[in-house]
Amino acid sequence: MQKHDQDFIKRKNRTTVFELIRKHSPVSRAEIARWTGMSPTTVSRIVNELYHLDFMHEIEQETTSVGRKAVFLQVNPKSVLSVGVEMDKTGVRTGVVDLDGKVVGIRYIARQPEEPSDATLGKIADGIQTLIREGGFDRRRIVGIGVGLPGIIDHDGGRAVLSAQLGWKSTDIAPLLQERTGLPTAVDNELKVKSLAEHTYGAAAGSKRSVLIGFGSGVGSSLIIDGDIYRGESNSAGEIGHTIVDPGGSLCECGKRGCLQTYIAEAALLEKARKIKPVSGLDELFQARRNGEGWAADILDRAMAFIAVTIGNIACMYNPDTVILTGKLVEQYPEVKDFIAEKCMSEFVWEPLRGTFRIVYSAFEQDGVIIGSGLLAQSRFLDIASQIDQMEQNQI
Amino acid sequence: MQKHDQDFIKRKNRTTVFELIRKHSPVSRAEIARWTGMSPTTVSRIVNELYHLDFMHEIEQETTSVGRKAVFLQVNPKSVLSVGVEMDKTGVRTGVVDLDGKVVGIRYIARQPEEPSDATLGKIADGIQTLIREGGFDRRRIVGIGVGLPGIIDHDGGRAVLSAQLGWKSTDIAPLLQERTGLPTAVDNELKVKSLAEHTYGAAAGSKRSVLIGFGSGVGSSLIIDGDIYRGESNSAGEIGHTIVDPGGSLCECGKRGCLQTYIAEAALLEKARKIKPVSGLDELFQARRNGEGWAADILDRAMAFIAVTIGNIACMYNPDTVILTGKLVEQYPEVKDFIAEKCMSEFVWEPLRGTFRIVYSAFEQDGVIIGSGLLAQSRFLDIASQIDQMEQNQI
User: Fold this and answer.
1) Partner residue facing A245 (CB), from B246, B318, B356
2) Is the model's pLDDT at B37 over the cut of 90?
3) Which terminus of chain B has a lower count of CB atoms within 10 Å, N or C?
């Protein structure tokens, strides 16, 4: 066998053992050997390497069958870290995320709404370096950066195609952050990374295919199949806000008529309300409905029906096992939650699909994008073999 | 190494070599050894087995680099066959499908609309036996049966949950056919298998993710990702006909209001037309529009807008590279094709998605379901190693 092939197998075996322990821990050395078909000697060698470099620890547990103690292996969740970044109009939140999806350090960076992109990205790069340094994180354990932001994102190119909220168009993100930090960087739409977080460790943990629906400044969704984001051809799958529900309906900002989001986006609801009364925001609109004002009830009842329609339509298209709801409109007003709980399944979901999925609410709320971005970076750049190589070269 | 493990590796290597030749043919023995990492001796042994049993043949080709002739291997498409079955209200078509998706034998079986399911399934089992015998097909080369029918299908259980067209409810299909023919049987919705045929060898060949949309007695769609049907939790993904476009709209047969199919299903259009004039079918309705009758134009213009909306909405949800259209309404009337060609992309598709996909028409038309069902059976039951074992035992 060639030296090159030997290296390849060695690297592959390391990753296999690490992933196996990660996903099925606690596991014993004997189980690893049995499941992988590797020899006990090979398994021991790899486990010792991983153990020596702090990638895992041993725990003693009673084995159920014989009652005596046995040694099991468990991955150390702090042994692989990534940086998750959430970008918004007025600020950026960065966090260090571990293998279990826990945020173990956080740093806020202010941003002016009109700030040029390179100024913002420069600040983020500096902020990440400070976050790592001041948090005392081992730089060699950080596998990469993930960035989540609103808009149409070219995931492969690490670029914002269009982000109306940030005012960015054709803006490179990954190249600049990579150059300034030396860390590989992945970029994605904020709903997509949020769905990854909820699917992996949040409200949909254990799901095989879940969809997150976000009701905010627009309406969007993201489907995860077996742990992977379903992106489609240009990373735009799930843009339910721009599906047309009425070809003769009102004009959407996209230029088409009757897009779903013209019925439920926050701005659309407020615009309708303000034709009648100058409400300051959603809170006041909901208050008006509670006060028995008919015009507010009309607007919100229609919006709630369309929220239920959105859930039902998503179920028809994706046939998921879990629907995760997020966004102010569905999370903050009890009347919306009640409406969904009481009416959605029975009146707006196609009969054969009733009971095939559950409706849950985001578990991570404000940290969802940071966690998801961090997990995105881990899944894209986690190559345990090269981490070990690097550490060995550095004689950790 | 245990005898059991040796057998396992032997079987796995056979399948690897067969799939490699199938997907990349023509390939040389040296290429197989290089790509798989197997020794030349192992490759030769497996290739000789496959060759001896007629699974492949050799072809001579000039190699571009040196100009001399070299021997390449090519899979014999007739070496693996399956039976595809298309079930409809008044008849069943069965066909023998080869590895290239070609129909190499066909047989029609009449059916009474009210016929009980076991009578129909009995006839199909007999018909398949006759088809195989009279066509002179080698029984040992047939890996299984695939059945495509309209309705909600429990793919895992091989059962029709509900097929309104056939009048079947909770009807076992696979168990009976398996018992009567001895062949493993897979069952699926007709649009799903049709999309598999078009994606693999038809109008969307070469696509990574394509959606087939069928406009017929209902409206439905089927997404294929990298050659696999996306089924969802209960094999109902893609039921766009029951997405709601108007929560206050007309009552659908499903009990909800404003389902998309109430705007474009053939029956819905005819029902609307017959309130004005007793037309015999779609042809007459289109003729009325051509004659300048305003009421017919109103009904069909609205239907065409909703066809375009359906395509645009599918693009938003699935972000495919190819949309395949099928069904009488879109295939048989030039005015519909023209409308789609002229208006769909520019007026009904969200701007960022324009040009990210192409719109094509079904390449297989009436054979699509047979071919797709046959391919489904091949993908589910093709285990080249056990075919060889069986042939060796039978000393072919």
Assistant:
1) B246
2) no
3) N
Give, in words, the CATH class of A79-194+368-393.
Answer: alpha beta
Q: Given this model, what pLDDT does residue B1 score?
A: 45
**B281 has pLDDT over 50:** yes
For A3-75, the fitting CATH number among 3.10.20.310, 3.40.50.300, 1.10.10.10, 1.10.3720.10 is: 1.10.10.10
User: What is the distance in angstroms between the Cα of B264 and the nearest Cα belonging to chain A?
Assistant: 14
Instruction: Nearest by CB to A357, from B233, B254, B313: name it.
Output: B233
- Using the Cβ of A71 and the Cβ atoms of chain B, whether some distance falls under 8 Å is answered with no
Cβ contacts (< 8 Å) between A161 and chain B: which residues?
Answer: 352
Which residues from B are below 8 Å from A235, CB to CB? Answer: 319
Interface check for A303 against chain B (CB to CB < 8 A): the answer is: no
Residue A98 corresponds to which tokens in the numbers above?
A: 């571990």
Partner residue facing B356 (CB), from A233, A312, A313: A233
Nearest residue in chain A measured CA to CA from B162: A352
Q: What's the CA gap between A10 and A12, in Å, rounded? A: 5
DSSP, collapsed to helix, strand or coil, labels residue B63 as coil
Size of interface A-B (CB pairs under 8 A): 133
Q: Do A234 and B152 touch (CB under 8 A)?
A: no
Tell me, what's the pLDDT at A172? Answer: 97
Which residues of B fall within a CB distance of 8 Å from A306? 247
As a CATH number, domain A205-362 is 3.30.420.40
Instruction: Look up residue B318 and give its two tokens.
Output: 């699935």
Q: Which two tokens stand for residue B42?
A: 């192992």
- Answer yes or no: do A237 and B317 touch at CB < 8 A: yes
Domains B79-194+368-393 and B203-362 in one fold: yes
Is the domain spanning B203-362 CATH 3.30.420.40? The answer is yes
Contact partners, residue B22, CB within 8 Å, separation at least 6: B75, B99
Q: Which residues does A355 contact at the CB level (< 8 Å), separation at least 6?
A: A345
ipTM: 0.90
Residue A86's pLDDT band, with cuts at 50, 70 and 90, is: very high
Dihedrals phi, psi of B69, to nearest 5 degrees: -75, 140
Task: Please state, in angstroms and as integers, the Cα–Cα distance from residue B153 to each residue in A121, A352, B148, B395, following that order.
Answer: 51, 11, 9, 39
Judged by a CB distance cut-off of 8 A, whether residue A28 touches chain B is no
Residues 29-58 (A) with a CB less than 8 A from some CB of B: 37
User: Nearest-CA residue of chain A relative to B5?
Assistant: A37
What b/e readout covers B221-231, taking b as 16+ CB neighbours within 10 angstroms? bbbbbeeebbb
Give residue limits of the domains in chain A: 3-75, 79-194+368-393, 205-362
What are the pLDDT digits (tens) for B357-386?
Answer: 999 999 997 899 999 999 999 988 776 667
For residue A65, is pLDDT > 70? no
pLDDT score at B396: 47
| Least confident residue range of A215-229, B19-33, B139-153 | B19-33
Q: Do A247 and B348 touch (CB under 8 A)?
A: yes
| A275-294 burial code (b ≥16 CB/10 A, e <16) | eeeebeebeebbebbeeeee
Give the model's confidence band at A66: pLDDT under 50 very low, under 70 low, under 90 confident, else very high: low
Restricting to A residues 243-302, those with a Cβ less than 8 Å away from any Cβ of B are 243-247, 254-256, 259
**Shortest CA gap B151–chain A (Å):** 11
Name the strand (E) or helix (H) holding B160. Answer: strand B159-163
